[in-house]
Write a structure and sequence with these properties.
Blueprint lengths: L9 H7 L40 H11 L11 E11 L18 E10 L14 E9 L2 E8 L12 H8 L15 H9 L4 H8 L19 E4 L5 E10 L8 H10 L3 H11 L5 E10 L24 E12 L3 H6 L12 E3 L3 H17 L82 H9 L2 H15 L5 H11 L4 H11 L31 E6 L5 H13 L3 E6 L5 E2 L5 E2 L3 E2 L10 E6 L5 H17 L4 E3 L18 E3 L6 H11 L7
Parallel strand pairs: 10-11, 10-15, 11-14, 15-16, 16-17
Antiparallel strand pairs: 1-2, 1-8, 2-3, 3-4, 5-6, 5-9, 6-7, 7-8, 12-13
Length: about 675
């Protein structure tokens, strides 16, 4: 069995009929028509030195197909990557919803997940400071249920009328089309200061949350307010949260910028390596529930997507787990053609009057109608539900099924009025009969929608000191690229509403006067908002082992065994590929060379050391690795007798450096340091 398909489920079995192999000993090249090709290397011409002939139909077919291999990239979230997995229910939600995939504990539902970046184009970098999308397609027995999340619990706007404006503002400057995949330019920050409801999400964006260590280590929030509806017709407001089992962890700003240059595919490479190694990414699904009668109980409007539902006020119930365990077979056919729509619902999950959700219900389908040039995109294998499909939709571009019915309208008598409607009590979707009244208006749903700074202030109050300093650095980095001094000044005054001292420090960094405004009078904070309170583990952290000939074989072997026992991923890095031999005859096979990797790509390093034909160059490379790891506050393990690689001065305290010299518990201490990830008190 193909290793990628060992985790089979009903969706994988359905996709099998669409997979084809074009290579192998019995495969002969053909045209699309099935005609065998005798020459695929040379064009048809009139004489050896003559012009090419238009009658060369094979060249025409080959080149014209290539010319049309791309479809328009998504206007936002263009850069993405998809994987398959399943969702397993822990706890029945029958009391709240009729959705069948949420009824029986232990039930598994296959799914497809697409991770994406909002701003950059298809060829941009993974590690940009950006809004990330996590789109999940559940292939349920009742049809596809699509859930579209961000790595933040809040959105940048509270009304869909501004979808186009914020997207235009964040995209590259229209004259030069730069900068790519960053909001470090005038248009975005002019939008922010002109639309203060953006304040809360921009605080999250500028925080460490805007630079996840990997997709496996970031939360996902569908941001919108939905309804659960149970069999009795009782409605409960619900928001969803996906919690990564590895915790929430991030890259430092300069680290993210550096990685984007040396490995633009850092996040997708990370998830590929994790799945291929069997370290499947796992996320637990939590729900926050608010009874219909409690809609107005809180000091925020539950329909406002610029406001979060604090876990401390609206408790989180963990109900299941998502495991990502299978890679795609073909990027274009599956990832690029995948399409998601928040209107793909199942009975028991319903829209609320959340304005942004209402707007998204139009935007997503309309986008795919343009991109894929057809209303039939849901017939594509990756989008096709595993539930039976029967309707009167016909024709159009990319029509795959051959409909053999002579009758294709409803109602009818010729076909017994089929396909027939399904009553709600038998599983047909029925909209919740919510009461609607009032005058037609463009007013906000409540005054709470215009409270722009309270929750942004709470977010600031909730951050640890390292997170606050990081956020100020990120603001300064992006606003420092804004050319208009007036826009920089207005931003400083705006952010003073969140925290006066924070805005003052930003002002000092970007060359404008300190603010006159004072922050809102809010002292509340929530521990759940600081990612330093997130779970920490050494699992799947990547350690670079720097090694040469004559290393301490016994110690290195024991250390590598301990790392692997704790789920740590190891790359052995040497001057060249082949093998290196320890002083006791231990032989190791390097997986990378100093030329093919960069220090920023590792969560920790282990200096095994050794000899080299060019010892000076070898030592200098190790010093370069140490300098960068030390600067980024990452763990460093040092083999016995190699402490000279760590320059000790009165200005550095060596926190997070673990030495094996006279240390029988070195391997376990190094694992504990790897789990900690950063040493914020390091000097």
């Amino acid at each position: 069995m193909d290793q990628n398909h060992k985790n089979k489920d009903s969706k994988d079995e359905q996709l099998e009929q669409f997979r084809q192999t074009n290579t192998g000993p019995d495969k002969q090249m053909t045209e699309e028509s099935g005609m065998k090709v005798s020459d695929d290397q040379k064009s048809l011409r009139a004489g050896k030195r003559g012009p090419l002939l238009m009658q060369d139909f094979h060249f025409y077919k080959k080149q014209s197909h290539f010319n049309r291999e791309r479809i328009p990239e998504k206007v936002v979230h263009a850069r993405g990557f998809g994987v398959y997995g399943d969702f397993e229910l822990y706890e029945s939600m029958k009391d709240y919803t009729m959705a069948k995939f949420l009824q029986e504990p232990g039930k598994k539902t296959p799914l497809f997940v697409r991770f994406s970046n909002f701003v950059g184009n298809r060829g941009s970098k993974d590690t940009a400071v950006d809004i990330r999308g996590i789109a999940i397609k559940f292939y349920t027995e009742e049809g596809n249920y699509d859930q579209l999340s961000l790595q933040f619990p809040v959105f940048i706007l509270s009304d869909p009328m501004k979808f186009m404006d914020v997207s235009h503002a964040a995209k590259p400057e229209p004259k030069t089309h730069i900068p790519q995949a960053t909001v470090g330019h005038d248009n975005f920050w002019d939008y922010v200061v002109s639309n203060p409801e953006s304040a809360h999400m921009v605080m999250w964006l500028m925080s460490m949350r805007g630079r996840p260590r990997s997709w496996r280590m970031m939360e996902a929030y569908p941001i919108n307010t939905f309804r659960f509806v149970n069999e009795k017709g009782i409605s409960t407001f619900v928001r969803f949260i996906w919690k990564p089992k590895l915790g929430v962890h991030s890259l430092k700003l300069d680290e993210a910028n550096m990685i984007g240059g040396v490995d633009a595919d850092f996040h997708r490479r990370d998830i590929i390596e994790a799945i291929e190694s069997g370290s499947y990414p796992e996320y637990e699904l939590g729900v926050q529930l608010i009874a219909e009668e409690d809609e107005f109980k809180y000091d925020f409007d539950i329909l406002d997507d610029t406001k979060l539902w604090p876990e401390e006020e609206v408790p989180l119930k963990i109900i299941g787990k998502m495991t990502l365990n299978r890679l795609m077979d073909n990027f274009f056919a599956e990832e690029e053609q995948s399409a998601f729509n928040p209107s793909n619902l199942v009975p028991g999950i319903e829209f609320s009057n959340d304005p942004v959700l209402q707007g998204r219900s139009f935007a997503y389908r309309d986008t795919e109608l343009y991109r894929q040039n057809s209303p039939n995109y849901e017939e594509l294998p990756v989008n096709r539900p595993i539930a039976d499909v029967a309707n009167n939709f016909r024709d159009g571009y990319q029509k795959h099924p051959i409909d053999t019915d002579n009758v294709h309208m409803h109602s009818n008598s010729l076909a017994g009025n089929t396909p027939a409607e399904t009553p709600p009590e038998q599983g047909g979707y029925e909209n919740y009969p919510k009461k609607v009244e009032g005058n037609v208006t463009r007013e906000h749903p409540s005054d709470s929608f215009e409270d722009y700074y309270t929750q942004a202030r709470i977010f600031w109050n909730s951050l640890s000191e390292p997170e606050r300093l990081d956020l100020i650095e990120s603001f300064s980095f992006h606003l420092g690229s804004v050319k208009s001094k007036e826009v920089r000044e207005m931003n400083v005054e705006m952010w003073a509403n969140v925290d006066t001292e924070m805005a003052g420090m930003i002002a000092d960094n970007i060359g404008v006067e300190r603010p006159k405004n004072k922050h809102v009078d809010v002292d509340k904070s929530y521990a759940s908002l600081s990612q330093l309170n997130s779970p920490h583990s050494a699992m799947t952290q990547k350690v670079g082992v720097l090694i040469g000939e004559g290393f301490n074989g016994k110690e290195v072997k024991e250390t590598l065994d301990t790392l692997k026992e704790n789920g740590v991923m190891v790359e052995i890095i040497a001057e060249k590929l082949g093998s290196v031999t320890g002083e006791d005859g231990t032989v190791l096979e390097p997986t990378k060379t100093f030329l093919t990797v960069h220090p920023s790509l590792f969560d920790a390093i282990y200096i095994a050391g050794g000899k080299s034909q060019n010892q000076l160059k070898f030592d200098q490379i190790i010093f370069d690795f140490v300098r960068m790891q030390y600067m980024h506050l990452k763990p460093i393990g040092v083999s016995s007798g190699k402490d000279s690689y760590i320059a000790q001065t009165e200005h550095n305290n060596g926190i997070g450096v673990v030495s094996a010299t006279d240390n029988p518990d070195f391997a376990n201490q190094f694992v504990a340091a790897i789990a900690q990830k950063r040493f914020w008190d390091r000097t």
